[in-house]
Task: inverse folding
């Protein structure tokens, strides 16, 4: 007979359970590891880039020429092309996306929505390489026939930007609709009860109330445009150029990375490290935009709770 | 005591009492459906000008539905349909040529939950006036509206602050001020005090009694004490076995509460159900 | 109270109201227009691609048949002897050896020989191509173009043929196909799925079922959102530096084939698949989290109430209840991976490959890369086969996505029946 009876509910060590929980935790930790590796790799290679004799930090940040062959590493032409194509994309996507968002949320009936929403989903699901082909074979010839072959170059930022706008339109439209639909219905009722029309209610009450949600949409769309690659790689031109003419070709940051890495580049060359320095810049820009966007939309969600 | 006795009109017949009133709204045999569901059926009653009319009744009896049909807020629900007539100054408001936007300009509404716009206190009031082409002194309009809503003294130093920064009771008075700023003829109130504490409720009730000098007020309420305190006429709605509402009894408030004609009315006001 | 009103009355009020109404209609039509424009974009996109798949092509033969054998206009008119003769006569010895390596001329049938004559002897070249619309509207110009080029002839060509789908990649657009790229896409996708699916579900399970609301959990969640939003090209840089370069012995298969020289130097299907795996991982995690969140808590409670452990509850109740949505989310993530181009180009997959992949250590090309390479070449015929490849890719995506929808419907219907 036992002198000390064990408690029937004593904790049992479940090795399997503990092992599974530990493994799942490691899986979750992987996401952090990915971010850390991205940052470490980009930083490490960028350091090598800035250590090379031909490169100085100020020359990189403020130089207006990017010609690695003869030792010019000024990022401004690439950055300028990235920002210009993104600007065109936002000029296309923002008003259109906002209009679609307002229409779907404030005007459209369920039947119309059930047609438009799948179309937006399909548009969003088409790979960007297809949009690149579209820019090259449809938008560019269209622009050239409108403005003339002597005005519009074969590769130009306008065509790439417009098509990029079409690419991010579904993202902007869906996010705008979500932000607008999240405005409490009571505000609409209050406005209608004062004798406001649907337009006045939408534009002057609902949209201002959704403003922070909409600005989060804008930032995420911009981040998407800045990081977009295949359209600009195909249609915006290969060759860095400092130009403010939308109808000229100029290589963007992403376009340059794709072109250089597409060739067989030697690991110890400045070409190789330069794409990481540009990648770091790209990561920094999009990361900042994403985080601000996330912060704004998180605050927006609590605004009406 | 004598006050109360004097207040009791001699006649206990609402039709007779109504002959002395100017009827601003006539609801004539109105039935409202939501899709296939009949929400409320065959309602007929008159609303007297510059009086307070209360709609009472158990949940789901259609009192709010009828209230919303008066300024065509039901139009915003796609499945809602209405038969019958609602006359405003003798004009049928459901004729196809009628613009609901113009109806709502004349018949304002205050909602159950205070819903100020996420704009400044000043803008909350100025906005409605501006869309209707107000030409006078906006500062003055804001002040008079806030004074009428008994809110001026509390907010006069913070007109630029957001309307959402006010307390619940203040927000509701801001909503009332916003409604009267566009000078409607009628104000509909859908349980305006149900989300408020007793003190704020008391202030809203005082306000209603002041406002009836200039406006006709229709108020939906769950609170029978409130109905008896603020209203001149009371309509009691009931719900039938098919869950559709109907008008059970409409009378001068005192008579409806002191001497109800129907057993259901009596049971409801004595708290047996609801 | 002041009885005069500062609001417009009477006719002025009426006119104002009408004006507001008109402005409302104008804007409403603008909103509708924008919405219809979005639909129109999709239509134009698809039409412009289909347009490039069909149309007139002006061709010229490098060695026109009549100059080789008098009186013969087409290979169809040739006898077996003539075909064999042409092949032996016109192919270089090396080429001939290559052609006869797996099958001698004697063993080949006539159709086979005709194809060889066409490809190696006559060698038709594309001079210029027109899209479907241009073929219908600019026939005069096409005719004039053909006249300006002596020896050329016009044919109406459909570029999206069965042989295009099954032929291997080639530098000649007339015989190039997408088999190599298609197989490459499937192999890469397989690696991507095998990597990202278990890791994605595991991470989502941890975050939804185990994690307490600590700082670390919050950071993880924020981090996953950020990973889902950073440009895909950054993943390419990560893959290039890590999988291709640091892990080269592993990803090239060198450590498995002890000593054997590898040709792929890390730019293999394995590297590509893992890179895309990292790219879709956050998407899978987010989708799986949504699926798990949708499982009602009562289900967990009833399982715990019977004395089940946490993992038993997850394995027997939470996962079965959410597997439909999880799979749908995973398949949608796979369709994203299927269309990705930039990261694969960055890790160096954009080289000319005409050999089918045989395993995870093969060099590879994928459909989007093929589209990129063909689109980037200015000669007409490449644009046409790029369009045909796009159609193949879109059809593939359609199949993948509709399989996700069908699977989701099936699983939810089955559950409904069980109830």
Result:
């Amino acid at each position: 007979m036992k002198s000390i009876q064990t408690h029937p509910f004593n904790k049992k060590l479940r090795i399997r359970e503990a092992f599974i929980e530990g493994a799942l935790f490691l899986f979750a930790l992987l996401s952090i590891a990915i971010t850390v590796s991205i940052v470490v790799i980009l930083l490490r290679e960028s350091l090598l880039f800035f250590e090379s004799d031909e490169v100085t930090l100020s020359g990189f940040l403020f130089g207006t020429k990017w010609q690695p062959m003869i030792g010019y590493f000024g990022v401004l032409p690439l950055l300028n092309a990235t920002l210009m194509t993104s600007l065109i994309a936002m000029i296309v996507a923002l008003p259109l996306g906002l209009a679609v968002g307002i229409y779907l949320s404030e005007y459209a009936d369920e039947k119309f929505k059930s047609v438009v929403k799948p179309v937006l989903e399909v548009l969003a699901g088409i790979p960007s390489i297809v949009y690149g082909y579209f820019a090259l074979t449809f938008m560019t010839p269209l622009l050239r026939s409108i403005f003339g072959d002597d005005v519009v170059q074969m590769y130009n930022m306008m065509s790439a930007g417009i098509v990029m706008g079409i690419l991010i339109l579904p993202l902007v439209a869906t996010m705008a609709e979500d932000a607008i639909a999240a405005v409490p219905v009571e505000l609409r009722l209050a406005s209608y009860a004062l004798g406001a029309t649907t337009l006045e209610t939408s534009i002057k009450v609902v949209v201002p109330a959704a403003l922070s949600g909409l600005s989060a949409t804008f930032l995420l769309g911009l981040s998407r445009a800045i990081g977009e690659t295949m359209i600009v790689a195909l249609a915006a031109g290969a060759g860095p150029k400092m130009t403010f003419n939308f109808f000229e070709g100029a290589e963007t940051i992403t376009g340059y990375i794709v072109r250089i890495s597409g060739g067989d580049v030697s690991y110890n060359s400045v070409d190789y490290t330069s794409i990481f320095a540009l990648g770091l810049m790209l990561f920094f820009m999009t990361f900042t935009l994403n985080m601000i966007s996330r912060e704004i939309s998180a605050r927006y969600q609590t605004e009406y709770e | 005591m004598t006050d109360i006795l004097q207040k009791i009109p001699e006649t206990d017949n609402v039709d007779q009492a109504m002959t002395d009133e100017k009827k601003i709204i006539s609801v004539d045999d109105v039935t409202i459906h939501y899709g296939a569901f009949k929400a409320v059926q065959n309602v007929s009653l008159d609303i007297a000008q510059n009086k307070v009319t209360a709609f009472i009744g158990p949940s789901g009896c259609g009192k709010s539905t009828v209230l919303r049909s008066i300024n065509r807020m039901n139009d915003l629900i796609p499945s809602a349909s209405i038969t019958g007539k609602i006359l405003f100054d003798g004009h049928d408001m459901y004729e196809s040529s009628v613009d609901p936007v113009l109806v709502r300009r004349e018949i304002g509404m205050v909602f159950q939950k205070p819903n100020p716009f996420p704009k400044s206190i000043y803008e909350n009031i100025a906005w409605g006036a501006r869309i209707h082409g107000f030409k006078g002194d906006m500062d003055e309009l804001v002040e008079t509206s806030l004074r009428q809503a008994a809110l001026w003294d509390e907010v006069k130093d913070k007109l630029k602050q957001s309307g959402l920064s006010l307390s619940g009771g203040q927000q509701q008075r801001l909503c009332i001020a916003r409604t009267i700023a566009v000078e409607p003829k009628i104000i509909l109130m859908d349980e305006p005090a149900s989300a408020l504490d007793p003190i704020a409720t008391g202030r809203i009730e005082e306000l209603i009694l002041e406002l009836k000098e200039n406006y006709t007020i229709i108020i939906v309420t769950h609170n029978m004490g409130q109905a008896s305190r603020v209203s001149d006429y009371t309509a009691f709605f009931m719900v039938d076995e098919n869950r559709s509402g109907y008008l059970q009894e409409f009378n001068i408030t005192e008579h409806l509460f002191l001497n109800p004609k129907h057993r259901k009315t009596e049971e409801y006001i004595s708290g047996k159900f609801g | 109270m002041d009885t005069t009103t500062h609001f417009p009355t009477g006719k002025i009020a009426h006119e104002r109201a009408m004006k507001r109404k008109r402005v409302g209609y104008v804007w409403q039509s603008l909103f509708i227009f924008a919405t219809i424009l979005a639909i129109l974009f999709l239509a134009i996109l698809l039409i412009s691609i289909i347009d490039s798949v069909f149309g007139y092509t002006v061709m010229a033969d490098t060695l026109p048949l009549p100059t080789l054998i008098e009186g013969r206009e087409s290979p169809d008119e040739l006898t077996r002897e003539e075909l064999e003769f042409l092949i032996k006569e016109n192919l270089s010895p090396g080429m001939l050896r290559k052609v006869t390596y797996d099958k001698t001329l004697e063993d080949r049938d006539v159709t086979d020989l005709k194809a060889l004559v066409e490809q190696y002897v006559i060698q038709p070249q594309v001079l210029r191509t027109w899209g479907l619309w241009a073929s219908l509207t600019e026939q005069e110009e096409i005719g004039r173009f053909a006249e300006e080029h002596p020896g050329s002839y016009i044919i109406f060509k459909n570029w999206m043929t069965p042989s295009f789908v099954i032929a291997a990649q080639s530098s000649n657009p007339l015989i190039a196909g997408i088999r190599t790229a298609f197989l490459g896409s499937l192999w890469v996708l397989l690696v991507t799925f095998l990597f990202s699916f278990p890791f994605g579900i595991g991470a989502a399970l941890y975050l939804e079922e185990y994690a307490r609301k600590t700082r670390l959990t919050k950071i993880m969640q924020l981090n996953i959102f950020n990973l889902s939003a950073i440009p895909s090209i950054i993943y390419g840089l990560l893959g290039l530096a890590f999988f291709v370069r640091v892990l080269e012995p592993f990803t090239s298969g060198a450590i498995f084939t002890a000593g054997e020289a590898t040709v792929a130097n890390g730019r293999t299907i394995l590297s590509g698949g893992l890179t895309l795996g990292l790219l879709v991982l956050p998407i899978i995690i987010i989708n799986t989290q949504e699926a798990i969140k949708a499982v009602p808590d009562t289900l967990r409670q009833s399982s715990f109430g019977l004395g089940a452990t946490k993992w038993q509850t997850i394995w027997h109740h939470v996962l079965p209840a959410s597997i439909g949505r999880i799979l749908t989310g995973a398949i949608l993530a796979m369709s994203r991976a299927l269309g990705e181009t930039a990261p694969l180009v960055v890790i160096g997959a954009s080289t000319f490959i005409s050999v089918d992949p045989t395993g995870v250590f093969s060099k590879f090309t994928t459909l989007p890369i093929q589209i990129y390479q063909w689109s980037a070449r200015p000669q007409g015929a490449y644009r046409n086969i790029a369009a045909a490849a796009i159609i193949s890719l879109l059809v593939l995506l359609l199949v993948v996505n509709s399989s996700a929808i069908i699977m989701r419907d099936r699983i939810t219907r089955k559950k409904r029946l069980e109830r």
